[in-house]
Amino acid sequence: MRTHSAERHADRDGLDSARVLIVDDSVVVRAVIARLIDASDRFSVVGAVGNVAAALAFLDRVTVDFILLDIEMPGIDGLSALPDLIAAGQGAKVLIVSSSADEGGATAVRAMALGAAETLTKPSTSALSTRFGSALVNKLEMLCEYPAQMPPALVVRSPILPTPPADNPLPIRPVATGDDYDIVAIGASTGGIHALSQMFGQMPAGFRLPIVITQHLPASFMPYFAAQIAVLAGRPCDVAVDRMRIRPGRIIIAPGDAHLKAVRLSEGGAAFRLTHEAAPSGCMPSVDPMLASLADVYGARLLAVVLSGMGRDGAEGARRVHDSGGCVVVQDQQSSVVWGMPGAIAASGIADAVLAPDAIGRLAATRRRP
After folding, report:
1. Structural domains for the chain
2. Hey, how many other C-beta atoms are within 10 angstroms of the C-beta on 316?
C-alpha cells in the first residue's frame, strides 16, 4: 500500500484527474480511502490530513475538486468547520464520509443544509472494502459535471437584482395587493438542501403563501428534512399525506416514496394526492408531476423554482408551468452543486430568470414576476 503524505502529486493520473483531499483523523482510514480512490481512473488523492486546521492550511496552497470530510475529529468537528472548508475550497465539493452520517439521520440532513454536496456512511475500518470504494467513487462521479447533461459552451446570464449597500440589507416587503402568485413550488436534488437554506434566509417570517417542495431524498430522511426546513423557514413544515389541504402559511414536502400532486376540490381550494406511478425521469418522488399538477390548478398564479440537482427531473413540469402562464425560475450554474435539473430548463429557453438561491428568495418574497 502506498502511503499518502499531507500533499503529493499523482503523476500517473495526469492533469485530467479530479483532485481529492481527505480529512480524517485516522491514519489507517486515510490510507485505505486513498488507495480505493486511486484505484479509479477518474480521481486522484492529492492530500490526506488528520484535522481541520491542517485541511485549511492545505487548501490555502493547493486547489482541489473534492473534500472528503469526517465529522468526529479532535479539535474542531467536521460540521462546525464545514462553512470554513467550503469557503477555503473555492468551489470544491464536500462529501461527508462519516460513521455519524447515517442515511436518514439528522446529522446527514444538517450537513447538507450547511453546504455539503452529499453524505456517505463510513463503515468500520475492517469493512473499508472494495465495495465501499465503489460506493464512494460512484458518489464522486455523480457529483462531477457530465457534458451529456449540459454542454459546457452553454452560458446563461443571470438577471441581476439590485444589490443593497452592505450596511443596509435589501428590505423584504410582502406586497398587500396585486400579487402575482398564489403558491410557490420548489424542486431540488443534489445540493438542493443548502440552496433551500439560502433561499429561505431571504424570505420573511410573515410570508404567507403555501410552499410545496419535492426534494430527492430517501423516505427515511423526510422527518429530519421537514424539521430542518421548519427551522430554516421559521414556519411549520409537514411531510404530505394523502388528501391534505393546501393552506397559507405552511410548507409541505413530498414523502420520499410517492409523487406529490395537486387537485382542485369541488367545494373550492385544492388538496394533495399521493401517487406512485412511474415518472419519465425515473425519480420517486419526481418534480415533474408536482409542477404539472400545480400548473393545472393554479395556472398563471404559480411560481415554480428548480434548484441544484442531477438529471432532467422538473424539465417537463416546468414546461407545463410555462405553457400555463406561470413563472419559472431556476438556480444559476455558479451556485449549483450539479447544474443538471436547472440547466436543462435554462437550455430549453423557458426560464423567466436564472438566479442564485438568495436572489430567488428575495424575488419570491416580493411576490412579483422578474
Report:
1. 11-143 (3.40.50.2300), 183-366 (3.40.50.180)
2. 20
CB-CB contact of 62 with 90 (8 Å): no
Can you give the pLDDT at residue 105? Answer: 74
Mean pLDDT score of the chain: 86
CB atoms within 10 A of CB 75: 12
Which of 100, 45, 41, 88 lies closest to 68 in space, CA to CA?
45
Would you name the residues annotated as active-site residues?
Answer: 189, 216, 313
pLDDT at residue 145, rounded to an integer = 58
Asked if residues 221 and 339 have their Cβ atoms less than 8 Å apart, the reply is: no
Asked if omega into 236 is within 30° of 0 (cis), the reply is no
Angle between helices 106-113 and 222-233 in degrees, nearest 10: 40
Annotate 161-175 with b (16+ C-beta within 10 A) or e (fewer).
beeeeeeeebebeee
Predicted pLDDT of residue 271: 97
pLDDT computed for residue 102 by the predictor: 76
Cell 484527474 belongs to 17
Task: Please report how many Cα atoms fall inside a 13 Å half-sphere around the Cα of residue 61, on the Cβ side.
Answer: 9
pTM: 0.81
Q: Phi, psi at residue 93, to the nearest 5°?
A: -90, 135
Closest CA to 301 of 272, 264, 258, 273: 264
What's the N-to-C CA distance of the chain in angstroms? 57
Q: What angle do CA 52, 55, 60 make, to 5 degrees?
A: 130
pLDDT tens digits, residue range 14-32? 447 899 999 999 999 999 9
Whole-number Cα distances in Å, 344 to 149, 150, 318, 363: 7, 7, 10, 21
